[in-house]
Protein backbone atom coordinates (compact mmCIF):
# COMPACT_ATOMS: atom_id res chain seq x y z
CA UNK A 1 0.00 0.00 0.00
CA UNK A 2 1.43 3.40 -0.98
CA UNK A 3 1.56 6.25 1.53
CA UNK A 4 -1.05 9.00 1.15
CA UNK A 5 0.09 12.01 -0.83
CA UNK A 6 0.79 15.21 1.16
CA UNK A 7 -2.10 17.65 1.42
CA UNK A 8 -0.64 20.21 -1.06
CA UNK A 9 -0.05 17.43 -3.60
CA UNK A 10 -3.62 16.19 -3.16
CA UNK A 11 -4.95 19.72 -3.62
CA UNK A 12 -2.92 20.18 -6.81
CA UNK A 13 -4.14 16.84 -8.10
CA UNK A 14 -7.77 17.74 -7.38
CA UNK A 15 -7.37 21.09 -9.18
CA UNK A 16 -5.75 19.38 -12.14
CA UNK A 17 -8.52 16.78 -12.32
CA UNK A 18 -11.17 19.53 -12.09
CA UNK A 19 -9.46 21.37 -14.94
CA UNK A 20 -9.42 18.27 -17.13
CA UNK A 21 -13.09 17.62 -16.32
CA UNK A 22 -13.99 21.21 -17.26
CA UNK A 23 -12.09 20.90 -20.55
CA UNK A 24 -13.84 17.59 -21.29
CA UNK A 25 -17.21 19.19 -20.48
CA UNK A 26 -16.51 22.01 -22.95
CA UNK A 27 -15.59 19.43 -25.58
CA UNK A 28 -18.85 17.64 -24.80
CA UNK A 29 -20.86 20.83 -25.37
CA UNK A 30 -19.08 21.38 -28.69
CA UNK A 31 -19.89 17.80 -29.74
CA UNK A 32 -23.54 18.32 -28.78
CA UNK A 33 -23.66 21.31 -31.12
CA UNK A 34 -22.00 19.30 -33.90
CA UNK A 35 -24.49 16.44 -33.46
CA UNK A 36 -27.43 18.83 -33.80
CA UNK A 37 -26.08 20.92 -36.68
CA UNK A 38 -24.14 18.45 -38.83
CA UNK A 39 -25.78 15.86 -41.03
CA UNK A 40 -28.03 15.58 -44.03
CA UNK A 41 -29.37 18.20 -44.24
CA UNK A 42 -27.05 20.66 -42.49
CA UNK A 43 -28.84 22.95 -40.04
CA UNK A 44 -27.81 26.64 -39.93
CA UNK A 45 -26.94 27.87 -36.44
CA UNK A 46 -29.53 30.67 -36.46
CA UNK A 47 -32.35 28.32 -37.44
CA UNK A 48 -31.26 25.77 -34.83
CA UNK A 49 -31.32 28.46 -32.13
CA UNK A 50 -34.80 29.53 -33.21
CA UNK A 51 -36.01 25.94 -33.04
CA UNK A 52 -34.42 25.47 -29.62
CA UNK A 53 -36.14 28.62 -28.36
CA UNK A 54 -39.52 27.08 -29.17
CA UNK A 55 -40.23 28.76 -32.49
CA UNK A 56 -41.82 26.53 -35.12
CA UNK A 57 -39.36 26.59 -38.02
CA UNK A 58 -40.78 24.43 -40.85
CA UNK A 59 -38.67 21.30 -41.31
CA UNK A 60 -35.91 22.48 -38.99
CA UNK A 61 -37.91 22.16 -35.77
CA UNK A 62 -38.61 18.50 -36.46
CA UNK A 63 -34.98 17.73 -37.37
CA UNK A 64 -33.59 19.49 -34.30
CA UNK A 65 -36.19 18.86 -31.60
CA UNK A 66 -37.62 15.47 -32.58
CA UNK A 67 -34.67 13.76 -34.25
CA UNK A 68 -31.15 15.00 -33.53
CA UNK A 69 -31.45 16.54 -30.07
CA UNK A 70 -33.04 13.43 -28.46
CA UNK A 71 -30.26 11.30 -29.95
CA UNK A 72 -27.61 13.68 -28.59
CA UNK A 73 -29.19 13.73 -25.12
CA UNK A 74 -29.51 9.93 -24.98
CA UNK A 75 -25.88 9.65 -26.13
CA UNK A 76 -24.70 11.89 -23.28
CA UNK A 77 -26.81 10.09 -20.66
CA UNK A 78 -25.79 6.64 -21.91
CA UNK A 79 -22.11 7.53 -22.01
CA UNK A 80 -22.31 8.98 -18.51
CA UNK A 81 -23.95 5.84 -17.15
CA UNK A 82 -21.50 3.50 -18.88
CA UNK A 83 -18.52 5.57 -17.74
CA UNK A 84 -19.62 5.50 -14.11
CA UNK A 85 -20.49 1.80 -14.22
CA UNK A 86 -17.17 0.78 -15.75
CA UNK A 87 -15.14 2.91 -13.34
CA UNK A 88 -17.00 1.44 -10.37
CA UNK A 89 -16.25 -2.13 -11.44
CA UNK A 90 -12.62 -1.38 -12.32
CA UNK A 91 -11.95 0.43 -9.05
CA UNK A 92 -13.81 -2.04 -6.86
CA UNK A 93 -12.24 -5.12 -8.45
CA UNK A 94 -8.79 -3.50 -8.74
CA UNK A 95 -8.61 -4.58 -12.36
CA UNK A 96 -8.57 -2.22 -15.38
CA UNK A 97 -10.01 -5.03 -17.51
CA UNK A 98 -13.12 -5.39 -15.34
CA UNK A 99 -16.07 -3.66 -16.96
CA UNK A 100 -19.71 -4.59 -17.65
CA UNK A 101 -18.69 -5.60 -21.19
CA UNK A 102 -16.01 -8.04 -20.06
CA UNK A 103 -17.67 -9.63 -17.02
CA UNK A 104 -20.98 -10.39 -18.67
CA UNK A 105 -23.40 -7.80 -17.31
CA UNK A 106 -24.18 -6.19 -20.66
CA UNK A 107 -24.34 -9.64 -22.28
CA UNK A 108 -26.88 -10.65 -19.63
CA UNK A 109 -29.00 -7.62 -20.44
CA UNK A 110 -28.77 -8.49 -24.13
CA UNK A 111 -29.76 -12.09 -23.41
CA UNK A 112 -32.82 -10.85 -21.51
CA UNK A 113 -33.87 -8.74 -24.47
CA UNK A 114 -33.35 -11.57 -26.98
CA UNK A 115 -35.34 -13.94 -24.77
CA UNK A 116 -38.17 -11.40 -24.81
CA UNK A 117 -38.01 -11.20 -28.60
CA UNK A 118 -37.75 -14.97 -29.11
CA UNK A 119 -40.50 -16.15 -26.78
CA UNK A 120 -42.77 -13.17 -26.14
CA UNK A 121 -42.41 -11.07 -29.31
CA UNK A 122 -41.74 -8.16 -26.96
CA UNK A 123 -40.70 -4.68 -27.95
CA UNK A 124 -40.74 -1.19 -26.47
CA UNK A 125 -41.34 -1.10 -22.70
CA UNK A 126 -41.46 -4.89 -22.30
CA UNK A 127 -38.06 -5.19 -23.99
CA UNK A 128 -36.70 -2.61 -21.57
CA UNK A 129 -37.80 -4.60 -18.52
CA UNK A 130 -36.51 -7.91 -19.86
CA UNK A 131 -33.10 -6.37 -20.59
CA UNK A 132 -32.97 -4.86 -17.10
CA UNK A 133 -33.93 -8.17 -15.49
CA UNK A 134 -31.31 -9.97 -17.60
CA UNK A 135 -28.57 -7.64 -16.36
CA UNK A 136 -29.68 -7.86 -12.72
CA UNK A 137 -30.05 -11.64 -12.92
CA UNK A 138 -26.54 -11.96 -14.31
CA UNK A 139 -25.20 -9.80 -11.48
CA UNK A 140 -27.00 -11.91 -8.88
CA UNK A 141 -25.48 -15.08 -10.34
CA UNK A 142 -22.05 -13.45 -10.35
CA UNK A 143 -22.40 -12.50 -6.70
CA UNK A 144 -23.46 -15.99 -5.66
CA UNK A 145 -20.88 -17.97 -7.64
CA UNK A 146 -17.93 -15.65 -6.95
CA UNK A 147 -18.77 -15.23 -3.27
CA UNK A 148 -18.46 -11.45 -3.52
CA UNK A 149 -21.06 -11.07 -0.80
CA UNK A 150 -19.04 -13.09 1.72
CA UNK A 151 -16.06 -11.96 3.76
CA UNK A 152 -12.70 -13.02 2.37
CA UNK A 153 -9.42 -11.90 0.91
CA UNK A 154 -10.13 -9.00 -1.37
CA UNK A 155 -7.83 -10.15 -4.15
CA UNK A 156 -9.26 -13.67 -4.22
CA UNK A 157 -12.85 -12.46 -4.32
CA UNK A 158 -12.11 -9.85 -6.97
CA UNK A 159 -10.25 -12.30 -9.21
CA UNK A 160 -13.04 -14.87 -8.86
CA UNK A 161 -15.62 -12.27 -9.79
CA UNK A 162 -13.79 -11.37 -13.02
CA UNK A 163 -13.14 -15.00 -13.99
CA UNK A 164 -16.72 -16.07 -13.26
CA UNK A 165 -17.95 -13.07 -15.24
CA UNK A 166 -15.87 -13.97 -18.29
CA UNK A 167 -17.11 -17.57 -18.17
CA UNK A 168 -20.71 -16.44 -17.74
CA UNK A 169 -20.39 -14.00 -20.65
CA UNK A 170 -19.21 -16.85 -22.90
CA UNK A 171 -22.19 -18.97 -21.88
CA UNK A 172 -24.61 -16.11 -22.48
CA UNK A 173 -23.14 -15.45 -25.92
CA UNK A 174 -23.82 -19.09 -26.78
CA UNK A 175 -27.40 -18.76 -25.47
CA UNK A 176 -27.97 -15.64 -27.58
CA UNK A 177 -26.63 -17.39 -30.69
CA UNK A 178 -29.05 -20.26 -30.10
CA UNK A 179 -32.01 -17.95 -29.49
CA UNK A 180 -31.30 -16.08 -32.72
CA UNK A 181 -31.88 -19.33 -34.61
CA UNK A 182 -35.38 -19.46 -33.10
CA UNK A 183 -36.35 -16.06 -34.46
CA UNK A 184 -37.80 -15.26 -37.85
CA UNK A 185 -35.46 -13.63 -40.33
CA UNK A 186 -37.02 -10.22 -39.73
CA UNK A 187 -36.96 -10.54 -35.92
CA UNK A 188 -33.39 -11.87 -35.98
CA UNK A 189 -32.36 -8.82 -38.02
CA UNK A 190 -34.00 -6.50 -35.50
CA UNK A 191 -32.32 -8.35 -32.63
CA UNK A 192 -28.90 -8.15 -34.26
CA UNK A 193 -29.36 -4.43 -34.95
CA UNK A 194 -30.28 -3.85 -31.30
CA UNK A 195 -27.37 -5.95 -30.03
CA UNK A 196 -24.86 -3.88 -32.01
CA UNK A 197 -25.92 -0.82 -30.03
CA UNK A 198 -27.66 2.03 -31.78
CA UNK A 199 -29.01 5.46 -30.90
CA UNK A 200 -31.22 5.70 -33.98
CA UNK A 201 -34.42 4.95 -32.06
CA UNK A 202 -33.73 7.50 -29.33
CA UNK A 203 -36.74 9.53 -28.21
CA UNK A 204 -37.50 12.02 -25.49
CA UNK A 205 -39.29 9.24 -23.57
CA UNK A 206 -36.13 7.13 -23.55
CA UNK A 207 -34.07 10.14 -22.56
CA UNK A 208 -36.47 10.72 -19.65
CA UNK A 209 -36.08 7.10 -18.50
CA UNK A 210 -32.29 7.38 -18.48
CA UNK A 211 -32.35 10.80 -16.82
CA UNK A 212 -34.67 9.57 -14.05
CA UNK A 213 -32.43 6.54 -13.47
CA UNK A 214 -29.31 8.70 -13.25
CA UNK A 215 -31.01 11.11 -10.83
CA UNK A 216 -31.41 8.18 -8.45
CA UNK A 217 -28.25 6.17 -9.12
CA UNK A 218 -25.64 8.96 -9.26
CA UNK A 219 -26.39 10.23 -5.71
CA UNK A 220 -26.38 6.61 -4.49
CA UNK A 221 -23.00 6.06 -6.13
CA UNK A 222 -21.65 9.34 -4.70
CA UNK A 223 -22.51 8.12 -1.20
CA UNK A 224 -20.86 4.76 -1.84
CA UNK A 225 -17.67 6.20 -3.35
CA UNK A 226 -16.57 7.35 0.12
CA UNK A 227 -16.87 3.75 1.32
CA UNK A 228 -15.11 2.55 -1.83
CA UNK A 229 -12.07 4.66 -0.92
CA UNK A 230 -11.97 2.95 2.47
CA UNK A 231 -12.48 -0.46 0.86
CA UNK A 232 -9.39 0.11 -1.28
CA UNK A 233 -7.29 0.07 1.90
CA UNK A 234 -7.98 -3.66 2.21
CA UNK A 235 -10.67 -5.75 3.85
CA UNK A 236 -9.00 -5.93 7.25
CA UNK A 237 -8.35 -2.20 7.47
CA UNK A 238 -11.85 -1.36 6.22
CA UNK A 239 -13.41 -3.73 8.76
CA UNK A 240 -11.33 -2.21 11.56
CA UNK A 241 -12.69 1.21 10.55
CA UNK A 242 -16.25 -0.09 11.01
CA UNK A 243 -17.10 -0.73 7.34
CA UNK A 244 -19.24 -3.74 6.42
CA UNK A 245 -17.11 -5.03 3.55
CA UNK A 246 -19.51 -7.59 2.00
CA UNK A 247 -22.48 -5.23 2.20
CA UNK A 248 -20.51 -2.35 0.67
CA UNK A 249 -19.17 -4.54 -2.12
CA UNK A 250 -22.65 -5.83 -2.98
CA UNK A 251 -24.14 -2.32 -2.91
CA UNK A 252 -21.47 -0.99 -5.27
CA UNK A 253 -21.94 -3.90 -7.66
CA UNK A 254 -25.72 -3.47 -7.70
CA UNK A 255 -25.47 0.27 -8.45
CA UNK A 256 -22.91 -0.37 -11.21
CA UNK A 257 -25.08 -3.12 -12.69
CA UNK A 258 -28.19 -0.93 -12.59
CA UNK A 259 -26.32 1.85 -14.42
CA UNK A 260 -25.18 -0.44 -17.23
CA UNK A 261 -28.29 -2.64 -17.48
CA UNK A 262 -30.68 0.33 -17.66
CA UNK A 263 -28.56 1.89 -20.37
CA UNK A 264 -28.31 -1.34 -22.37
CA UNK A 265 -32.10 -1.62 -22.13
CA UNK A 266 -32.42 1.79 -23.82
CA UNK A 267 -29.56 1.83 -26.35
CA UNK A 268 -28.41 -1.75 -26.68
CA UNK A 269 -24.89 -2.79 -25.65
CA UNK A 270 -22.58 -0.01 -26.83
CA UNK A 271 -19.38 -2.03 -26.77
CA UNK A 272 -16.37 -0.92 -24.75
CA UNK A 273 -17.68 2.49 -23.62
CA UNK A 274 -17.67 1.36 -19.98
CA UNK A 275 -14.30 -0.28 -20.52
CA UNK A 276 -12.65 2.76 -22.14
CA UNK A 277 -13.88 5.64 -19.98
CA UNK A 278 -12.28 4.65 -16.67
CA UNK A 279 -8.73 3.91 -17.89
CA UNK A 280 -8.71 7.04 -20.06
CA UNK A 281 -9.80 9.14 -17.08
CA UNK A 282 -7.09 7.53 -14.97
CA UNK A 283 -4.43 8.22 -17.59
CA UNK A 284 -5.45 11.88 -17.70
CA UNK A 285 -5.97 12.48 -13.98
CA UNK A 286 -3.37 10.06 -12.62
CA UNK A 287 -5.96 8.28 -10.46
CA UNK A 288 -9.54 6.99 -10.75
CA UNK A 289 -11.91 9.92 -11.32
CA UNK A 290 -15.63 9.28 -11.49
CA UNK A 291 -16.65 12.76 -12.81
CA UNK A 292 -13.98 12.67 -15.52
CA UNK A 293 -14.91 9.10 -16.48
CA UNK A 294 -18.56 10.12 -16.79
CA UNK A 295 -17.72 13.00 -19.13
CA UNK A 296 -15.29 10.88 -21.16
CA UNK A 297 -17.95 8.19 -21.54
CA UNK A 298 -20.39 10.77 -22.89
CA UNK A 299 -17.73 12.13 -25.27
CA UNK A 300 -16.96 8.62 -26.59
CA UNK A 301 -20.61 7.88 -27.37
CA UNK A 302 -21.18 11.26 -29.03
CA UNK A 303 -18.01 10.97 -31.12
CA UNK A 304 -18.99 7.43 -32.17
CA UNK A 305 -22.48 8.53 -33.16
CA UNK A 306 -21.25 11.58 -35.10
CA UNK A 307 -18.64 9.46 -36.89
CA UNK A 308 -21.11 6.73 -37.72
CA UNK A 309 -23.62 9.20 -39.14
CA UNK A 310 -21.26 11.36 -41.19
CA UNK A 311 -17.96 9.69 -42.12
CA UNK A 312 -19.08 6.81 -44.33
CA UNK A 313 -20.93 8.49 -47.17
CA UNK A 314 -24.51 7.34 -47.56
CA UNK A 315 -23.95 4.44 -45.14
CA UNK A 316 -24.92 5.19 -41.54
CA UNK A 317 -23.18 2.98 -38.99
CA UNK A 318 -24.62 2.38 -35.50
CA UNK A 319 -22.62 3.93 -32.67
CA UNK A 320 -21.89 0.45 -31.29
CA UNK A 321 -19.87 -0.43 -34.40
CA UNK A 322 -17.62 2.59 -33.87
CA UNK A 323 -17.16 2.03 -30.13
CA UNK A 324 -16.32 -1.62 -30.81
CA UNK A 325 -13.71 -0.58 -33.36
CA UNK A 326 -12.21 1.87 -30.86
CA UNK A 327 -12.33 -0.49 -27.90
CA UNK A 328 -10.89 -3.66 -29.41
CA UNK A 329 -7.34 -2.33 -30.01
CA UNK A 330 -7.42 -0.56 -26.64
CA UNK A 331 -8.32 -3.86 -24.96
CA UNK A 332 -5.41 -5.59 -26.70
CA UNK A 333 -3.10 -2.82 -25.55
CA UNK A 334 -4.40 -3.14 -21.98
CA UNK A 335 -3.87 -6.90 -22.08
CA UNK A 336 -0.24 -6.44 -23.14
CA UNK A 337 0.50 -4.01 -20.30
CA UNK A 338 -1.56 -5.60 -17.48
CA UNK A 339 1.12 -8.13 -16.38
CA UNK A 340 3.58 -5.30 -15.78
CA UNK A 341 1.06 -3.03 -14.11
CA UNK A 342 0.10 -5.26 -11.30
CA UNK A 343 -3.40 -5.09 -10.02
CA UNK A 344 -4.15 -1.84 -11.62
CA UNK A 345 -4.00 0.20 -8.42
TrEMBL record:
Its main location: membrane. The keyword Iron does not apply. Keywords: Cell membrane, Membrane, Transmembrane, Transmembrane helix, Transport. Belongs to the binding-protein-dependent transport system permease family. FecCD subfamily. GO terms for cellular component: plasma membrane. It comes from Brachybacterium faecium (strain ATCC 43885 / DSM 4810 / JCM 11609 / LMG 19847 / NBRC 14762 / NCIMB 9860 / 6-10). GO terms for biological process: siderophore-iron import into cell. PANTHER family: FERRIC ENTEROBACTIN TRANSPORT SYSTEM PERMEASE PROTEIN, FERRIC ENTEROBACTIN TRANSPORT SYSTEM PERMEASE PROTEIN FEPG. This is ABC-type enterobactin transport system, permease component.
Amino acid sequence: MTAPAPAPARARRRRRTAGYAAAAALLLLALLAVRVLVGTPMVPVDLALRALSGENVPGISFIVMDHRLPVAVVAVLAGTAFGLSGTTFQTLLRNPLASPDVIGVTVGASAGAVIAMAFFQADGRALFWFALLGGLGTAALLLVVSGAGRPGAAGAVDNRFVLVGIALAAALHALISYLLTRLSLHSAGDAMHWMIGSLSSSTWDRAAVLAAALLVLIPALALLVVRLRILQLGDDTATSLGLSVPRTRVALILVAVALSALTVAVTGPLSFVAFLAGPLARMIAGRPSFPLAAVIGAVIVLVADIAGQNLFGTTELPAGVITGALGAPFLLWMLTRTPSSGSGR
